[in-house]
């Protein structure tokens, strides 16, 4: 397996920002404050660990933390992928509230408005280090927010008698290691294959390799705990062990099921600070936890005030703790794949709302498909060898899903239409609506829209969520009675409303008829938003009325300098049904072979997404795509050598390679 190392290891908004940065309430500073350590791993579903019930795992250090500390069984990420999840941990704010932070990847503009957790901690007298991953999905400068952020950052460099906050990030369990072919330690014959996956050698290999990675991670945890012991700090330090999200077998990472969202969350409390836990030690807790709670909890443990803008709740602290009743999560764009899901759990049931039900779960993601397990699963699907449960991943999604997590731990029996589950269904649906409104969920904003973000989206008229949320909910209902209303809204002055009206029509495209298609064509000709035009183009191409849409798509794809528009156009062509798309193939080749190197980190990230989408589409249009075939990989060395590319490398811990890590 792996040798251990830490490397692997502004007008109205300004006033509102000042108000929300004010503390929620005064907290007295204690004379003796705890040191705080976060050990943050990539891609671990809680059930992979021995202390969570995996008999094949060998994780003695982590298990010991659980047996003497507090193990939380119902801890959840805000998103099932790393960068947006880490945004929530750094800011205490849901990435869904601050577009485009909810997308994988993006650069949300936050540094002019708020401070990051380590800045608050440093102002409160803590020495703060990060080692070394900084993929925060926003524009915070790691060298400014930490005392030290490097592969050698350590609490041992702090001034004498200074409390410390140290974060250690590890890539040992990252998805990329599932792609390896090194000999396995865990016997693949002994792993349990979940019912939604076919039983193939490649899938068993991924499941076993995932356990090997977790076992290796345990050694890194033991190393940090041993250093604390050597320094005589074990009884002075609160230690958190957690993962940024679940993973990493198919249908875990990136997906809004338990495998992608339920994370290990274990906390060591010294007896000196046990009173801050408000729970008995050496026991498991069934309290709900969200990773957005990490920042306010850390501030509270340090005796510092929590800014009002933080949306997380305090898990521990000197005052009594208000328990969570729900945890909210979601999925937006994943690399080159557009999607939008929102979900809530009460710990017993999970409700999921799919805002793009016309897209299948199994959209081809170039990084995911480097995994032999995904290749195997799709091969079995194309060969017709899957049962109904295993096939669901390759079919359009239901608008809503509801699962009883106690009776159905793999979430394969959707209760959304079950009469006996309607009370819980209605409760969780209403709670999700309320949460989206309260947090001003930015998820409906198309990426080509310039006005997005926490404060900008709250300006009058920019993002009328009270109108958008009911509109999007009607769009996914697949009710043909709504199509006239959707058509009328294509003339609305607000781009985001036009976008969701167009999606509603796309979902209903089989019932539109020639007259309405002609009306949509006229709207397309008058439309100025690339995102809206892309959706309208898909309707027109699918209806054989794409004579104007096809040239526009080709021209947009040929211009990767406007990468957000180019990606929207590529996705449209990928999912369009008709033969007209073949005429667009030369434009796809132009995008694929573009040599421009963006000067910004945003540009680098979006160009990677554009080229990934173009590579896949090129093989589909050529008729050469095979799940296990080789799609020619992009030579990204020039981009990584650029100043913006160097920023990306640093964010990934200095690892060269694909920015999807």
Structure overview:
The protein has 661 residues and is an alpha/beta fold. Among the domains are: 45-325, Alkaline Phosphatase, subunit A (3-Layer(aba) Sandwich); 485-651. Helices cover 36% and strands 11% of the residues. It is built from 22 helices and twelve strands. It has helices at residues 11-21, 60-68, 82-91, 117-123, 142-145, 201-230, 258-261, 294-301, 372-382, 388-391, 422-438, 465-475, 483-489, 495-507, 513-526, 530-542, 549-557, 563-575, 585-592, 601-622, 637-641, 643-651; strands at 35-41, 70-76, 127-131, 148-149, 164-170, 237-243, 262-268, 283-290, 327-331, 341-345, 349-354, 400-404. Strands 4-3-5-1-6-7-2-8 form an eight-stranded mixed beta sheet, with helices on both faces. Strands 9-10-11-12 form a four-stranded antiparallel beta sheet, covered by helices on one side. Helix 13 runs antiparallel to helix 14 (495-507) and helix 20 (601-622) packs across helix 22 (643-651). Residues 1-16, 25-31 and 656-661 have low confidence and may be disordered.
Strand order, main sheet: write it out.
4-3-5-1-6-7-2-8
Q: In percent, how much strand structure appears in the residues?
A: 5-15%
The computed structural class is alpha/beta
CATH class of the domain at 45-325: Alpha Beta
Oligomer: single chain
């Amino acid at each position: 397996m792996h040798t251990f190392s830490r490397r692997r290891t502004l007008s109205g908004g300004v006033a509102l920002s000042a108000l929300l940065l004010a503390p929620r309430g005064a907290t007295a500073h204690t004379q003796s404050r705890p040191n705080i350590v976060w050990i943050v791993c990539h891609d671990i579903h809680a059930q992979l660990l021995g202390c969570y019930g995996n008999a094949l795992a060998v994780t003695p250090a982590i298990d010991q933390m659980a047996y003497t500390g507090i193990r939380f069984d119902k801890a959840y990420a805000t998103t099932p992928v790393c960068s947006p999840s880490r945004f929530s941990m750094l800011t205490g704010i849901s990435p869904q509230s601050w577009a485009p932070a909810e997308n994988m990847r993006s650069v949300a503009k936050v540094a002019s408005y708020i401070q990051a957790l380590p800045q608050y901690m440093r102002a409160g007298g803590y020495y703060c280090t990060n080692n070394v991953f900084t993929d925060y999905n926003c524009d915070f400068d790691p060298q400014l927010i930490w005392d030290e952020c490097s592969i050698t950052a350590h609490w041992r460099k702090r001034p004498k008698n200074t409390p410390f906050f140290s974060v250690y990030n590890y890539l040992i369990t990252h998805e990329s290691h599932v792609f390896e072919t090194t000999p396995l330690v865990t016997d693949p014959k002994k792993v349990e294959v979940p019912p939604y996956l076919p039983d193939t050698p490649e899938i068993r290999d991924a499941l076993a390799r995932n356990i090997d990675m977790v076992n290796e991670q345990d050694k890194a945890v033991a190393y940090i705990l041993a250093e604390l012991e050597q320094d005589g700090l074990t009884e002075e330090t609160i230690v958190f062990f957690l993962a940024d999200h679940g993973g990493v077998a198919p249908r875990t990472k990136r997906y809004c099921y338990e495998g992608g969202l339920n994370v290990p969350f274990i906390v060591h409390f010294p007896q000196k600070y046990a009173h801050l836990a408000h729970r008995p030690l050496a026991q498991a807790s069934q309290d709900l936890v969200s990773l957005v709670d990490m920042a306010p909890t850390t501030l509270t443990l340090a005796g510092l005030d929590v800014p009002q803008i933080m949306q997380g709740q305090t898990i521990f602290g000197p005052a009594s703790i208000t328990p969570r009743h729900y945890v909210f999560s979601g999925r937006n764009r994943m690399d080159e794949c557009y999607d939008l899901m929102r979900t809530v759990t009460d710990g017993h049931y999970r409700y999921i709302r799919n805002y793009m039900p016309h897209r299948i779960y199994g959209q081809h993601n170039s990084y995911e498909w480097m995994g032999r397990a995904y290749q195997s699963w799709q091969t079995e699907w194309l060969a017709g060898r899957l049962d109904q449960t295993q096939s669901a991943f390759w079919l359009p999604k239901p608008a809503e899903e509801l699962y009883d997590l106690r009776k159905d731990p793999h979430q394969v029996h959707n209760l959304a239409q079950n009469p006996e589950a309607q009370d819980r269904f209605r409760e969780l649906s209403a709670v999700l609506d309320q949460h989206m409104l309260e947090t001003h969920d930015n998820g409906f904003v198309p990426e080509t829209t310039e006005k997005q973000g926490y404060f900008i989206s709250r300006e009058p008229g920019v993002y009328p969520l009270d109108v958008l949320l009911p509109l999007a909910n009607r769009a996914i209902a697949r009710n043909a009675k709504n199509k006239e209303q959707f058509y009328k809204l294509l003339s609305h002055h607000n781009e985001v409303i036009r976008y969701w009206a167009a999606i509603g029509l796309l979902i209903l495209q089989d019932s539109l008829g020639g007259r309405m298609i002609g009306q949509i064509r006229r709207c397309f000709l008058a439309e100025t938003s690339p995102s809206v035009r892309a959706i309208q183009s898909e309707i027109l191409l699918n209806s054989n009325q794409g004579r104007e849409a096809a040239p526009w798509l080709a021209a947009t794809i040929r211009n990767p300098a406007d990468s957000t528009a180019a990606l929207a156009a590529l996705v449209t062509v990928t999912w369009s049904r008709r033969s007209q798309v073949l005429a667009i193939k030369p434009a796809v080749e132009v995008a694929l072979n573009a040599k421009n190197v963006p000067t910004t980190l945003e540009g680098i990230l979006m160009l990677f997404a554009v080229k990934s989408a173009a590579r896949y589409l090129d093989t589909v249009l050529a008729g050469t795509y095979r799940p296990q075939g080789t799609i020619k990989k992009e030579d990204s060395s020039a981009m990584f050598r650029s100043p913006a590319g160097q920023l990306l490398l640093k964010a990934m811990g200095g690892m060269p390679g694909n920015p999807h890590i």
